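Appendix B. One record, verbatim.
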Amino acid sequence: MIRKNIAEGRFYPESRDKLEEIFNKIEEKEKDKFNEIDIKKNVIGGVVPHAGFIYSGYEAYHFFKILELQNKKYDTVILINPNHTGYGNEIEVDFNDYWESSYGNIEIDKEFSEKLNIAKGIIASKYEHSGEVEIPFLKKYLNSDFKLVNIIILNQNPKNAKFIAEEIFRVKNILKKEILIIASSDFSHYVNPKYGKENDDYVLKKILEFDLNETYNRIIERKVSICGYAPIMTLMEYSKLITKNPKSKILRQGHSGEVYPSNEVVDYVSILFYKE
């Protein structure tokens, strides 16, 4: 079974040549802002946006460029995504055999997926764009023939985030695989740029402090429209399982109004999670 692309031609170009064109455009614009110091970090994972490449690719680039320059080999990339459609289970791990990509199909890590105590299925991912949008970046910038695990979360709360983090950690220790975690999320949606940044920063303070409950409380308190907060919280919790003193750093923060000026923008943040 092959999970077919549904975001191609909408969120990102439909051919490899056109993907290369947009990647070159993004790199040309962002290369002078890239911090070479970050390639020395021991990466656990990252928060990256999943909007159209012409909007959020500039933020996403900074995380994926670190991976390219590190040239580290990963056995498995674990994509953790919000469920925008409502299809599937409360938490579901995709159980296709492959994911389609313009850069070549990606094999699902069935060995890893099977061992997770999470419902298996293909419905949650079938029409969900938030994981798919990360695939071209991974194939372009990750210098390894990795397999994929894709987890989609419908019910976003601290309990589920903690559970998923513990399951990933448990299976990683059994299989002894080198894994990378991508938490796919945009931040405030369709708000005034100043208002959106204030709310995002209010939540980001607790994300950077790895404070699971307060991150969730602040999102609920201000109704901050961060669409993938459970994936972010899962990465936070997993980082604390990997090391006693995890670190995080904002790589780039921006919004769609930087591309097309507007008073109603979507915010994008890329965050590096690492250990020393």
